[in-house]
């Protein structure tokens, strides 16, 4: 009887299919890679019990410049994730850190309501990136800076 195997997405080794099962779900990483990743995550927690590179509170403690950097990185990460999920991603002209930083520094207010933008999580005037044409991805010629409230309000607009 042939054994069913699968290649791990992390280490690229081929293992028995049972090495990829967890709660009857088939995962991308083998058991060994999952253990290594979980150990790494546990050993790199900040005082707020979050991964140190992903903790807004730690960045807030470092000052406004670090909080701005954290916010921009999150904006780019979430935009890319959304565009990939909806099959809109275009790597050739995609937004990057320097471009978004220039937009934020040159436009400290929302492009719709002129409220001063903040970098606090889930605030109505939190800085967000707005696609001008919602059918296209987050490219440099299709984005502007707005507050979270105006961005959410525009979601259904063409």
Relevant terms:
globular, two-stranded antiparallel ribbon, 158 residues, 13% strand, single chain, alpha+beta, 5 helices
Note the topology.
Layout: E1 5-7, E2 14-16, E3 21-22, E4 25-26, H1 31-43, H2 56-62, H3 64-85, H4 97-106, E5 127-131, E6 143-147, H5 148-153
Antiparallel strand pairs: 1-2, 3-4, 5-6
Question: Summed up, what is this model?
Answer:
The protein has 158 residues and is of the alpha+beta class. Helix content is 37%, strand content 13%. The strands form 3 sheets. Strands 1-2 form a two-stranded antiparallel sheet.
Structure description:
This protein has 158 residues and is α+β, with helices and mostly antiparallel strands. The chain is built from five helices and six strands. A hairpin with a 6-residue loop joins strand 1 and strand 2. Helix 2 runs antiparallel to helix 3. The radius of gyration is 20 Å and the shape is globular. The mean pLDDT is 84.
Total of helices: 5
Strand order of the largest sheet: 1-2
User: How many domains make up the coordinates?
Assistant: 2
Calculate the mean pLDDT score and round it. 84
Shape: globular
Write down the secondary-structure element order. EEEEHHHHEEH
Most strands sheet: 2 strands, antiparallel
